[in-house]
Each structure stands twice: as structure tokens, then as C-alpha cells.
Amino acid sequence: MKSWLNKGLILLIVLSLIPISVEALESPISSAGERDGGIGNSTNYLDAAPNISVDSKVNQILYPLFATPAIKKKGETLTLKIDTQGKTAGEWNVKLKQTNHSSLTSEYELPVQSVKEGQSHWKDSSSIKDVTVQIPEGTPEKLYDLEVTYTGNGQRITDKQPHSVKVVDGYKKDFTFLHLTDTHIGSPRNLGDPEDPTSTDPDLAREAGMWNPDPEKRWLYLQKAIKEVNLKNPDFVVVTGDLMYGQMNPQEYIYEYEETYKMLQKLNVPVYIVPGNHDYYAQDATLADGAKYWEKYFGPQYFSFDYGPYAHFIGYNSFDWHKYDRSGHGTVSVPTWGGQIREEQLNWVKQDLQKNAETAQKGQIRGLFSHHNPLWRDREIWPQDDPEVQKYWKQYDEKNNPQSLDTLLLGEKLGIKYDQQWHGENAQELIDVMKNNHVNVSLHGHTHIDNVTKQDGILYTTTTAIELTGKPWVGFRNFTVNDGQISSYHYDESGHSIPVYENGDTKGGVMSYEADYKYANDGSASSQEATVTNRLDKPLTVTVPIYMKEGKYKASNGTIKQNYPSDGKQYLEIEVTVPANSAETITINQ
Ligand SMILES: [Fe+2]
């Protein structure tokens, strides 16, 4: 979604701060083709940029990652992909460790069964090893960090990926997943009223907490959404991009990527993440390319995953443009923010679906998720009787990939007038691939509104933003699968998402549901009371995690889902259903 912020003002501020070469503005296209690394390997995009220093989060471990975790049943094997970066490797040691959410310290050693030469679909390297490990039967159901240590050319090397393995007791035939989108960390839009771009609303500013020195008070709308997601405890979560803003100044990815990465680790569930346009801009004033940041923080821009035999999902990058088309031309202004998928990625999606069909069981849910919805094409939506629109598509057809500067600037002008949704190539081709491969559901963001459209047997859902501009409210979507069918995907009859705030009212600041503990929930107490308040107009089922002193406990309310001792503590998970607009207290006693 395009900023409605006063672009002129921002432009002036940025132009006054950043020296921009006149040559860069006048003839930026000359080497664009050589700089475009193509799909699946964005490392070539920016190797010439000297001024970007990022502490890379993706190093030797290429799979599983924070943004592409593995969900595995205890007793099963898991094949890791490790890039030894040219070193001869041996003496492998693989562990699951407790995450930042856990009060426990137990680790679980995963015996290595085999090490083979491997490949990655997104990283060019000739030293990738497929390391197959087993999840021991005794591993409790939980989300874990992965730690891999090996000897490479005589040195012990360790790499970690937080939240990258979820161990389950079993896959559930009836399961739930949530969809969050457009979290926009760093967005100045959070401070004002969308109807009045000149205003700064103190109530909204409080919820945005924009760069508040106290990290607990920043991006409250996101922190509140995350607390609600954790309580819902879905089997997994998908996030469809626009994680940050990327349009304030050309260096902002340096801090926005870091902040986003930290903030999303407040999620205590496996989360699958693809980029949106705001994560993927390239600012030519500094050569800061969002595609390169993405690879260093989150890894691949497209991938697939399985939830046991019951679901197969593909996440893809719908902002799949040549770097030149993604560039701000010397300013924070960006001329392209609509969707596109190019041949290489489209072919990968098709092959992945065909491969999945060879082993798919009947009743498997097949889903695709991306930032832009391929149903909404600018070619069809932009008014065809506008002479500038006619001129634009003529120019575009004469030269695209990359476009000419003239075309880009006209596209930006028309985009501000009509917005940009699926702007470029291969929307119909992608839809045909989905139809031919019996895809059930297609999940998207970008427009910051809720919408549900059923077409050719595919459920297309667009979900509002976890940003204060979201309409009808800040929310996320809950999908429930029963008997191989998506049985629920909306909060109300209009197809809306679940509001994060009570009655969808952001300014009130009150969460639509939450849990409060009477005593510290860190394993020090021998009795506990947790009260779940549900301010929604629907009943709500949540899972409350409870850490007690080691012992035998009973719960006054709800169903005990987990109950095991570990390093002197007792871990319990209580599932409880709370009727609409009411509260339930769970008392835990010996
Ligand atoms: Fe957005």
C-alpha cells in the first residue's frame, strides 16, 4: 500500500540530508541488467555496495530457519541444510534448545543419522550438506531453537536459528493457522489519522510508540497482536510481508530489519514469512537493497512447507521485479509497489505443486501465500478511458523488465491516483497453475483491508494490516480446518478478521482478549491463578502456558494439554474456552 504521507515534505528532508549524484539521477539504467541477480539468489544484487554492514542472521544453517521453520513429530527424521562455506566438515552435533519464551533450560540432542552432499533451492554453494537427524521420542511438544556445531577445517563452528523447529506429539487432522500481514515497523503512518494526513493523533501515536526508547513500548499494536496470537496457539502462522516501512530514508533498513527480527521473536509459534514491497525496495542513493537484507535476515524469498500429511503451503515473493523497477530514483519516492511474479519463480511454484501431487493424501489443504493478490490486476482495474492510463500500458508493453524511467514515473503518478495492486506480469498464469493443481486457498495482504473472494474453487483472502491504517480494524485472520476442508476463515459474516482491539477501537488501546497471571509465571510458584478475559462477541479457545515448581498439579478449569517436569520445574499447558464477553479463571493447585 502506498503512503498517503506528505511525500513532498519527506522528500525535502531527505534531499537535504543525503548527497545524491546528478549522474545517478540522469542515467541510472546503464548497468541495471548486470546488477539484477535474478530470482532465488539475490546475493549478486549488491556485492558492489560498500556501505552496508549487517550482522547476518542466516549463516551456515540454510534450513530450517526462523522464517521457514520445520514442524516435526517426535521420532521422525529432519534433514537440515548446512552450508559449510567451503570447509571440510565432520563431528556433527545438533541440539534443540529452549527459546526466549521458555523458563526451562533442558536441551535435546538430535542423533545424526547421515550426512550427504546437498543443494539449496535459493543459495548457490557447492558445500551444502544434508544432515539428517532424528527427533528423540522423549522430546516434549514445544517450539525450539536449533543449534548446529561441527568441525570445519579443524575448527569448531557453531550456528543457531531461533524458533526454527516445532516438535509435535502428532499432526492434527483438524488444525488451525493464523494469517498476519503488513506489520509496518517504522511506519510514520501510525502516528496520524488516515483521513487527515496532517494530523498527529496522540492516541494513535501511543499505540505506535514509534522508536520509543523503551522497546516494550514500541509498536504496541504489533505487540498486542503477538500476545493474542501466542494465546491462540495455532499450529502455525503465515505472514505476508510489508513487515517494515522502507520509505522514510535510504538507510532505514539497517535498523528496521533488526527491529523487525527482534519483534517477531516475541511470537511463540512457528511462523512462515514472505516479503512485501516495503521490505524489498532498493534505494539507489546508497545501493541499499531490501532483497539483500531479506536474505541475510530471513533467507529465501520463496519456499514451501508441509504440516504433516494435512497441509502443503507455498510462500512466494509477489514483488518479483528487476532491481531497477524496485528502486527509488535518488529519493524516498518509489515508482513501483504493485505485484508481479517472473517466469523463474512461477516455474518453481508449478514444479513444487506437481512434486507435492505425487505424495499428497486425499484431503490435504493446499495453500499459496504472498503479499499481492493476483485477482486484482491494475490492467483491469485502472480506468481504460483515461488517456494517461492508455499511454502508460502502451509504454509498458514496449519496454518492461526493466521499465524505462519515463514509464516508471508515469506508473508512479497513476499509482498515486489509482493505487498499484497486481501491476506486472503472470497473474493469470499463476491463477491457472493454482487451478490446475487443485489449490484450495490463496492468502494476501497489501491493501490493508479484509476481503474474501471465491473463484474457480479457490478461496482468495486478503487480510487487514497489523498497522493502525487497517480497515475495518487492526486484525489477523484465523483459519480452521476440519475434515480436510477450511471450515472457518472469518470473525463475522462480512468475512472480517479478528480485531486486535476491543470492538476494533484502536484508540481505546484495550486488547480484545488477554491472560493475566496472579503470580510470576517462571516456575517459582506452587499455586497459580490465570484469568483469561474475552472481549470478543464470539467464544474463544486459548492455550495458557504455566510454569510451576516441580510437582503434581490439578487445574480447576479447562483441559491440561501438556504436563511434564523439567529441570526442577513443572510445565503445563491449559486449553480453555471462554464464552463471548466474559472471563474464566484457571486455578492451579497441588
Ligand atoms: Fe502494507
Automatic annotation (TrEMBL):
Pfam families: Metallophos (PF00149). It comes from the Bacteria. Residues 176-449 form the Calcineurin-like phosphoesterase domain. Residues 186-209 are annotated as: Disordered. This is Metallophosphoesterase. The lineage of its organism: Bacteria, Bacillati, Bacillota, Bacilli, Bacillales.
